[in-house]
Amino acid sequence: MRVQRGFTIIELIITLVVMGILLILGVVNLTSSQTKSRDTERQADVSNISSALESYYTSGSDDPNDPGTSKAATNTYPAANDLVGDDSSGNPAVLSLLRDLDTNALKSPNGGTDATSVSSTSLVPLASPTNFNTCLDNNGGISAALSCISTGDPHNASNKGDANAPTSKNDTYLYVPYTLRDSSGDYHYCGDVSDGTSGECSSYSLFYWNETQKKVIEVDSRHDD
Predict the structure, then answer these.
(1) CA angle, 74 as apex, 72 and 75 as ends, to 5°?
(2) How do beta strands 173-180 and 123-125 pair?
(3) What are 126-141's pLDDT values in tens digits?
């Protein structure tokens, strides 16, 4: 009578180890693929937002009561506060001003949940001009100032950085408009009439988080007057 031999303990252990390794590799590849997919979505969102901002620069907005209509002739970008709140019709201002914007671009992979709600979009303006000007003064240049805003405070001052700056835990698209305001050619934060810039924004930078590279990516305006 022929006796059928089963697996030995060693063979079972080897089999389980191989299966475990294959499972781990599969999970790693899946995670990497998902991460790259989110990065691709963020890049596409910011590209869409940037294109809509450039369209605003050349064509203004659809709503005749919005400041974008009068600004079109002077070729400017929206001031930070222009994108906050509702327009004259009660719709989110960002959707009226950026008429060519795909609303899906306002929802980052881990951020905004509703593009039609101001409080739930992932596109947020710089919260305070103090952040911008302080970063600029202490870092000596526009790029350094924007880096200071987006990555935190390199000089450990409490008034630097921005609560809305994109990080691994805050998946936002930060909009930072700025302008050349004085004779020395210094850049300044472009918020609204109250901060002295009269909303005439000559340039902007957008920031978003890249999971793969683990850093903040900056996208600048096509115009820099």
Answers:
(1) 65
(2) parallel
(3) 776 667 767 766 666 6
Work out the number of other CB atoms within 10 angstroms of the CB of residue 184: 6
Query: What is the pTM for the complete model shown?
Result: 0.75
Q: Please indicate, yes or no, if residue 4 is contained in any of the structural domains.
A: no
Average pLDDT over residues 108-120: 62
* Planar angle of CA 43, 44, 45, nearest 5 degrees: 90
Position 2 in a domain: no
pLDDT at residue 113, rounded to an integer: 58
Count up the domains in the chain and report the number: 1
57 touches 223 (CB < 8 A): yes
Query: Bridge partners of 170?
Result: 167
Instruction: Go through the chain and tell me how many residues it has.
Output: 225
Burial degree of 35 (CB within 10 A; 0-12, 13-18, 19+): middle
Q: Is 45 part of a structural domain of the chain?
A: yes
Which residues form the domain of 198? 9-220
In-domain check, residue 158: yes
| pLDDT interval class at 4 (50, 70, 90) | low
